[in-house]
Write a structure and sequence with these properties.
This protein is of the alpha/beta class and 471 residues long. It is 35% helix and 21% strand.
Length: 471
């Protein structure tokens, strides 16, 4: 049977794909950028990857009509001011496409919307749900609140706060109740609902057994890590101040912080339903979900992370648009050295950024990351999802991977920091030499002034980085 999976490059989509293949389905993966799709499995013959844009209804004509099931896992929390209108347009285009297919069952993963007053984000999820439910096919909606798992936005924000701050002065929305759910349970619900006729035309809230305040979730994380943390809540923080607080302390973007703060005022707990009995599911506790996340991180087996999604930076262009590094009107810093140990050099390149750092002048990189945060950028806090592997589309600190070929020793990065221009950083093995090239395309006079202002640091940083990579 054929299953259409939207959001296949996303946090949940990547993990659900593994489950669907294990159930012997043939999966059509819908992505915005095929170059970002990487999946290591022997089951590639049962995967078809199709590049579409849900905002462009004509692009949906590339998709097959002979599908049996479908998942709608497309969400946008922060890429634009009018994300609610864009989400509705995407859903409407997708719903019209489905009407032309042989689809039996569509499953949508949305948000818990039981409160009488909803945030802009949750209200958008509800509108999308209503649009998708109007088709002639069978429809099931699963509504989740906070999802806990290695690489999830919620888990990473909790992790940032607790690991970094022994004392927290927090907004009073930390007292809002929610019902977190482990990512492993979300995948079980998504897979077991498929083609289950008892779930057709139904809407279910899904959550774990614990109803906790956000403060209790922070305290629970601290307890699991044996950390002593003191948390005070104050009523004086405005939504804007709360957003800035979340933005500066964690790896989230400012727009995502605004969306999160807006939603965190709303209680997201599940209404009663019979889905657990129907599907024979016993959701794990919050503490068990944390333990599973720690195990994945410890074993370096994090399949997906929200940091690698475009919403972590507001990145708007397909990777293919930036693969050709420009030459005209650019400033270039290129250095090369002979390599004594090829394998060792490539391994070092593939560990760059994140916990490893940048091999030279890490304190200067941290200062640049802090300045980037002050100007509304992503800063250095995203780190990297996996310390050993790199794929196109991954985030590495304030860079985005455009191309990665370890066999050839070729890595190309594009800067997502706030800049008066565009910047690329490339590492390439040519004739037993490591060629390291920094390219900057300035935007106007200010861009040129910026280049000359940082030029004195280049010799120290880039020369030192190159020497340490080859030794």
């Amino acid at each position: 049977m054929k299953i259409l999976l939207t959001g296949a490059n996303g946090y949940i989509g990547k993990r659900l794909l593994t489950v669907l293949l294990g159930l012997q389905y043939e999966v059509i993966c819908c992505v915005r950028d095929k170059k970002r799709f990487h999946f290591e499995t022997v089951e590639l013959q049962r995967i078809q990857v199709i590049e579409i844009d849900l905002l462009d209804k004509e692009s949906l004509n590339k998709l097959p009509k002979d599908i049996d099931g479908a998942y709608y896992l497309v969400h946008s929390m922060s890429n634009s001011e009018n994300f609610n209108e864009l989400e509705e347009k995407c859903a409407l285009n997708f719903q019209k496409y489905l009407e032309k297919t042989s689809l039996q069952h569509l499953i949508y993963l949305g948000g818990i919307v039981n409160s009488t007053v909803l945030s802009k984000h949750l209200n958008s999820r509800k509108n999308v749900e209503q649009l998708l439910s109007k088709g002639s096919y069978n429809f099931t909606s699963l509504r989740a609140g906070i999802i806990i798992g290695s690489g999830s936005a919620s888990f990473e924000i909790i992790r940032d706060l607790v690991e970094k701050l022994p004392i927290m002065i927090t907004p009073n929305w930390l007292l809002t109740k929610c019902q977190p759910i482990g990512i492993s349970d979300v995948l079980i619900y998504l897979s077991r609902c498929l083609f289950n006729k008892a779930t057709y035309q139904n809407f279910y809230d899904i959550g774990g057994p614990d109803i906790l305040s956000y403060k209790e979730m922070l305290e629970g994380y601290a307890a699991s890590r044996n950390l002593k943390r003191v948390i005070y809540t104050v009523p004086v923080m405005t939504p804007r101040l709360s957003s800035y607080w979340l933005y500066f302390v964690t790896s989230t973007t400012y727009r995502l912080a605004v969306s999160l703060v807006d939603s965190m005022h709303v209680e997201v707990t599940c209404s009663e339903n019979n889905l657990n009995e129907l599907l024979d599911i016993s959701p794990i506790s919050y503490q068990e979900a944390l333990e599973k996340a720690f195990n994945k991180i410890g074993s370096k087996n994090v399949i997906s992370s929200w940091k690698d999604s475009y919403t972590s930076s507001g990145f708007k262009y397909p990777i293919s648009d930036l693969l050709k590094v420009p030459e005209f009107g650019c400033f270039v810093d290129q250095r090369s050295m002979h390599i004594s140990n090829l394998e060792n050099t490539i391994d070092k390149i593939w560990k760059i950024g994140g916990a490893t750092g940048w091999y030279q002048g890490n304190f200067l990189w941290e200062i640049r990351g802090f300045i980037d945060k002050l100007s509304g950028g992503v800063g250095l806090r995203r780190g990297r999802t996996n310390s050993n592997t790199i794929n196109a589309g991954d985030a590495i600190d304030f860079w985005r991977v455009l191309y990665a070929n370890k066999n050839k020793g070729h890595l190309l990065l594009f800067a997502e920091m706030k800049l008066p221009g565009e910047a690329w950083l490339e590492f390439k093995i040519i004739d037993a030499k490591l060629v390291q090239t920094a390219t900057f395309r300035p935007l106007g006079v200010y861009g040129r002034l910026y280049w000359y202002a940082v030029l004195p640091f280049h010799s120290y940083i880039f020369e030192g980085m190159l020497r340490k990579l080859i030794n």
